[in-house]
Design brief:
The chain is an alpha/beta fold. It has one domain (8-209): Vaccinia Virus protein VP39 (Rossmann fold, 3-Layer(aba) Sandwich). The chain has helices at 8-35, 40-46, 79-92, 128-138, 156-173, 181-188; strands at residues 51-55, 71-76, 97-100, 113-119, 139-150, 191-198, 203-209. Strands 3-2-1-4-5-7-6 form a seven-stranded mixed β-sheet, with helices on both faces.
Length: 211
């Protein structure tokens, strides 16, 4: 059954949130990464080969970690976030094509990339399953989807806390706490190659292949 498209108003709400918070994003994210996601960006980017797409590239926090020999494209809903990514790319001397685009409707042809990377992204995209379907579409056969995300924990106490906080997190930060990227990847047709969980199952590293 095809997935219904997320309401456009929700996508615009996410865009507006990041437009408003682009300049302060790095400061807040740096703290979260020290506590919860240490090493996650480096791990995800180290898996990238060939023609690489990063969905929701944000301020470009992943740019220092990509292998030097990949051809890199990044998309994001927010122009303000992309402006920060441009600055980071210039400081690093990193060649990257940065485009304003929606991960739920990627502006690329089928079978176009070798790797798609997502880090702390699927939690904010209104329709994450549509986005993962789009990842499948633009990947070449044999291409890989690599993700580092916070997810719905299998630990009952942690999941209970997530359920309590989720309505507030979605409302004020456009951040869903109860998603499970593995389910979205499997529904899109990916073969799961690797899953690692940490922080009582709250943090997940995922590698999946398009056969």
């Amino acid at each position: 059954m095809p997935i219904e498209e997320a309401p456009q108003g929700e996508t615009e709400r996410v865009r507006t949130f990041y437009e408003r918070n682009a300049e302060s994003y790095d400061k807040g994210m740096a703290f979260a990464e020290r506590i919860l996601f240490r090493g996650g960006r480096a791990w995800a980017c180290s898996q990238a080969v060939g023609d690489v797409l990063e969905i929701a590239v944000g301020t470009g926090r992943n740019l220092p970690y990509y292998p030097v020999d990949v051809t890199l494209t990044g998309i994001d809903l927010s122009q303000a976030m992309l402006e920060q990514a441009h600055k980071r790319a210039e400081e690093l001397g990193r060649a990257v094509t940065l485009l304003e685009a929606d991960a739920q409707s990627l502006p690329f042809p089928d079978n176009h990339f070798d790797t798609v990377v997502s880090t702390l992204t699927l939690c904010t995209i209104p329709d994450e399953r549509r986005a993962v379907q789009e990842v499948w579409r633009v990947l070449r056969p044999g291409g890989r989807f690599v993700a580092m995300e916070h997810v719905r924990s299998p630990h009952l106490l942690v999941r209970g806390i997530e359920r309590l906080l989720d309505p507030l997190s979605v409302r004020f930060e456009a951040d869903h706490l109860l998603r499970e990227p593995v389910e979205a990847a499997q529904a899109a047709g990916f073969t799961i190659e690797r899953i690692e969980r940490s922080r009582l199952g709250f943090v997940e590293r995922l590698a999946a292949r398009k056969e």
